[in-house]
Amino acid sequence: MDFSFISQYYIAFLKGISVTLLLSLIAIVFGFIIGLIVCIGKISTIKLFKLLASIYIEIIRGTPLVVQVMIIAFGLPTIGFKFPSILGLKSEFIAVSFALTINSSAYISEIMRSGINSVDKGQMEACRSLGLSYFKALKFIVIPQAIKNILPSLINEFVSLVKESAIVSFVGITDVMFIATSVKNSNYLSLEPYIFVAGIYFIITFSLSKLVNLLQKKMAN
Fold this sequence. Notes:
Layout: H1 5-43, H2 47-61, H3 65-78, H4 91-118, H5 121-129, H6 134-164, H7 176-187, H8 192-220
Helix pairs in contact: 1-2, 1-4, 1-6, 1-7, 2-4, 3-4, 4-6, 5-6, 6-8, 7-8
């Protein structure tokens, strides 16, 4: 097995890793914001909000990520919608970031809902009896406690995003998987680049998994 390509392409791989991590970070941050909004709609007593949130979650969770990426990256531009470049990030990067964000938000909304449901209902009742509105009680009392409860699950979602983001290489984003494919094609190596990339993904996800375990132990104490 020939891994001599690493010395020649290590800078490209480092750039690919940075793209992978940036995509995942953007998706988890904005996915959390959108997911929280969807979660509030899901637990709302207003039937229309609850229905719309449920439809959103079922559609996103019920369709493959690769299909969502293809629709957003290739489908939307054909009907005249093109994502703008933001802060030096190309429109294609913004498009796949949006696709990952939308996908992640549906899963995060359910994580958030379980976290909110884990908070003692008596606390909401106490807040309401003290004169706080429903949304203020959520904002200041319930949601902060829910976030603490679901923090390990959020990190696990980030781990999943790191792995699933490999799919963006299909639309030309130069993440670590795209670099591996390029090295394979230019050096006629069919196995070694992918083994190397598998090692990279393993190191990232294993480190994040260990972080989850540490958080769970600290929260248990």
